[in-house]
Structures are given as structure tokens and as C-alpha cells.
Amino acid sequence: MQLYFDVLHLYYIPQYVPVLQELLSKGHKVSMVFYKNQDRRSVDVSHSFINKNSINAIWLASSDDAFNFYQNSNADWIVFGNSFEKVELLNKKTVLMQHGIGPKQCYYDVSQNKTTVRFVEGEHRLARLKSLYPHSNFIDVGYAKLDPIFNQTLEKLDLSDLGLDPCKKTLLYAPTFYPSSIECFSDDFPSHYRDFNIIIKPHHFSLFKQRYKKQRLKLEQWATFNNVYVASEYDFDLTPFLDIADIMISDASSAIFEFAALGKPVVWCDFYKLRWSYKGIFSFRLKARLDDDIEYFHQLCNRASCYEELQSIIGFAEQQPAEFVELRENIIYKLAGKTDGHSAKRIVSYLEEHK
């Protein structure tokens, strides 16, 4: 088979890679499609990834060219990490592997554009998508991004290589870009957690988009503390950080479901810096952006309702890491599916059987 993975954004790649590797191990031909009209830093990071992993890469001038390229390609399957304009008009078989499993409404909305198949995570999401789009094809396979952790093929990070202390426990702060908690944190946040290593993994958009420049000012300040490692654009894969962290703090991000799936304690920052257009009479916009799935956070996480509560909540999570264990397994099965490390194998088997 010949397959193309559409890399509109770098953060799609961690979901793709386990499937790509499984395809290559079975002798299939695989290419990744990148876009030249991204900012210079994204293009540089893409080239670095391509060279390091010996990826067969195709570069298009822009996403506007993608439809014609795919229409005239030799693809058996084209894999997307988000919705793709005119996907139903393509004369090829298409796959949607959504790049995250977070609580944002877009997780469900993207299936308004119908692909040949969408691989989904867990019985809850499968049932909801089927009720919303009864004529579409959804297959529950689990969440391939976490396969390398569960099947123990992930290359381990060394804390000392990050300038951190291997003898300390590690806090991972993995906020999303919007609505985000970053700007609610104090400038000296790391000084309150000297007994911890702190890894800060910002969203790709926090590092690149002009409107989030205030978030970057916070990141630059935190990076000056000697117990902190701030992930750069080259660290676009969250998975290695999930693997080595002891406790994670996050906000409206799919990272919460991902870390909880590993059976480790999560602190939910249920406080956000909102634009004026999402406040007061416009608060309905925030409700529309966040799906009801965020209610599951209450059953998975230790919740901090403001920054001032964070330190005591982290202390509780450290002392009581087994909190939520009984609820967590059932919820994760519903929202992330099987966590056996074989999601990519199930995906590839489907693609082979339905060529």
C-alpha cells in the first residue's frame, strides 16, 4: 500500500508516528506531506524531524495545493489529523486520526467533513460520534500516540540531559494555548517548587503565534530558574515528558486524559486567562469551545480553582497519588479506549483489510 500522512501542523506527528512505523515494518510505502508556507521555524523543525527519522517527505507550496496533489497521487489511503476541506470529493480513501483527545468541541465537530473512516478512542466517544453522524464510519482502536509508552518502545529521556536533577520528582506543566492558565501563573512560579524538577511543555501555538506573545514572556522568565526545562519547538512530542513525569498540571488540554491513562496523578488548573470576547455576555463562546467531556476532569484530577490553591493541591497529589484510581481506569477506557500498546496494529490491520 501507498499512504500519505498530512502534516498541516507539527503536533499531528506524535499521533502518526506509531502507525507510520507499523506500516513500514510491514513493507508498506509511506510519505509525510509538509507545507512550505509555514513560518520559518516550523519548516526548520520539520526538516530536522525528517532527517533524524529518515522520513520520505513531500513538500507542497500550501494547503491549497493539497487537494490536487492527493487527487492525482497513487495513494491507497490519505491520513489527516484534522478536518480537510473538500475531503468528500477526493477520489481516494481517507482517514481521520484526530490529533488529540481533549475536551474541546472541535473533537466532535471535525467529523462534519466525512472521511472514509475515522479511528476513535473509547466506547464513549464512539457512541457520541455515531449519534451525531449516523452515516459515517467510526472504528474504536484506542489512542495510538500512547502506544510507545504502553509497549515500552519509547526512547527514555534522561533528566540530567535536560539540566534537571534525577534525584528529584518531576512536575510536568502542559497547558494548552486557549483557554490557557499560563498567564494566571506568577512570574516566580518555579521558586515555589524547589524540591521538584519542572518541565514546561507549551502548546505549539503558544510558541509561534503572535497573539500569544505574553505567554512567551512567562516562559522566558521561568526558563531562567535552574530547576526548570522549557520545551522548545523541537520538543513537539509531549509523550517522552509524560513518560518521565511524576505529577502533571494542565488546563483544558487532552494531556490530562493522556497522563491519567498512565495511572499517574493530575492537577487540573480550572482557571484561565480569557479574552474580553469570552467574558460576561460573551461567556457562551467559552461554553461552545469546551465540550461536556471536560466534566470527566472532576473524576480524574485534583482540581485547583485558582493559582493560589495550586501549591496545596500539588502537595496533596504528591502525598495521595492513588486518589481517583478506582474511577480512573473506567473513565480512561471510555475516553481513550484500550491502553494495551497495540492501537497502531489495529489501525494498520483495518487499512490492509479495507484496501
From TrEMBL:
GO cellular component terms attached to this protein's record: membrane
Per its record, what are the GO molecular function terms? Answer: CDP-glycerol glycerophosphotransferase activity
This chain belongs to which protein, by name? CDP-glycerol glycerophosphotransferase, TagB/SpsB family
